[in-house]
Amino acid sequence: MLRLKLTIFVLMRFTFKKEEKLKSKKLIEQLFEKGDSFTKFPLRIKFLKTDHHSENVIQASFSAPKRKFKKAVDRNKVKRLMREAYRKNKHLLTDAIKEKHIIMFTFTDENEHKYVEIEEKMIFLLKMLIDKTKN
RNA sequence: AAAGUAGACCACCUUAUUGCUUCGUGAAUUCGAAGAGGAAAGUCCGGACACCAAAGAGUAUCAUAGCGGAUAACAUCCGUCCGGUGUAAACCGAGGACAAGUGCAACAGAAAGCAAGUACAGUUAGGCUGUAGUGAAACCAGGUAAACUCUAUGAGGUGCAAUGCUACGUAUAUUGAAAUCCCGAAAGGGUAAGGACUACUCGUCUAAUUUCAAGGGGUAAGCAGCUAAAGUUAUAUAGUAAUAUAUAAUAUAGAUAAAUGAUAAGGAUUCGCUUUUGCGAAAACAGAAUCCGGCUUAUGGUCUACUUUUAAU
RNA sequence: CGGGGUGUAGCUUAGUCCGGUUAAAGUGCUGGUCUGGGGGACCAGAGAUCGGAGGUUCGAAUCCUCUCACCCCGA
Length: 135
Description:
By secondary structure, the protein is α+β, with helices and mostly antiparallel strands. It has helices at 2-12, 25-34, 72-89, 91-96, 115-134, and strands at 36-40, 43-49, 58-63, 101-107. It has a four-stranded mixed sheet with strand order 1-2-4-3, sandwiched between helices. Strand 1 (36-40) and strand 2 form a beta hairpin. The model is unreliable at 1-12 (pLDDT under 50). The chain binds two RNA strands through residues 9, 13-18, 21-26, 28, 61-63, 71-77, 80-81, 83-85, 87-88, 104, 115.
């Protein structure tokens, strides 16, 4: 009942608050050491099933490498676009996955992409992630 | 009209839907308010602030350099002299001293120092004087200080990852090395080897534990510092000006794997096509991180004043 | 946020402190000789406006200022 309520709420309001953000340095280190990853150009996803302390099921984070984007403006923009795409489509994950996970998205191309394209790829990635966690 | 010089201003706007951060209200997933820059950048100067015991003296080191002023301070700004660049408007200048000492000077040249000396001319016994030639510089108190140095002035060091508090953590753990004075029963007093304060010296503090080295683990969390400030604008007065004083108005970013976004519609600007209507495209440089004053670099556009050239009157 | 370092032939380095006449070396490259050919050895040659732009100086890879790129360190 509670879960159903939560799901309805998430469907109705596409939020992405501070608490859902992956911020712990230790968890991130763990993620990069042990996490699995796969790519759908230009996005790359890295995920790991761990027992973090947050109330939310999934903690997510976004990164744009400094080598590809030299200017801080561009890095910010790419991260914002990715975050927006995730925010709108994360209900796919929260419906399907029950165990706690941490996720990191990385942008792999050097050029900027339009929002529509990023959202398309994001949906594809999230569906793929769901399949993998089931197996 | 073209080219140039100087200065000032702007940095797309509005609405809707939907998110993020902070604050207030509230007790919930609500309502309201606010939310990047002229350079936020480079970190090149100068401060504020914090800690280092007190923030002291000298030396070393570093910086600055006509003269006068402004300022919290500065390598900034204003005025002015001199020198240089440019037809000009205007711009640029580390612009003190080689008459204290030391060093350096390729090639050329007789000679780049403290000792020598070429050619010619004048006078001619010698010598002296002048000129020529080489060179960036040639006998003159030579050139060179973005060479050492000297003179004057200034600067203690480290930086918000400063610093304080809370939580977690057997936590001044453990191991090794060094030092561990004198009086006294004790309390306490004296001294300062060692240690601390900084690169060194002086000076100061410190005596029952202290210092140095090795080294495993935990958290890498929260709060304060944290944003109202040498602020901006207007007027008046003083001053050539920078600026100062007075009065009035205006004041609201504070994130921390790091908020300030996405989508849609309309309008304005510029460019291209087109007779117009219209259609299509573009919109620079760039993202706060303790806060201010500058400098430097990147960069789209508008306006004003001035200079030169050409054309017309 | 703060602090420090490096840019020189295609590559790896000298020279920079203390300015000087034609920027040195190894390796790689090109050509030739030795060999039937290859490898190898030997001989010869090309290749740099010293990361970029200004300044000081008679003269700058070297001194000074600004700037670009890359790298390292710091609770």
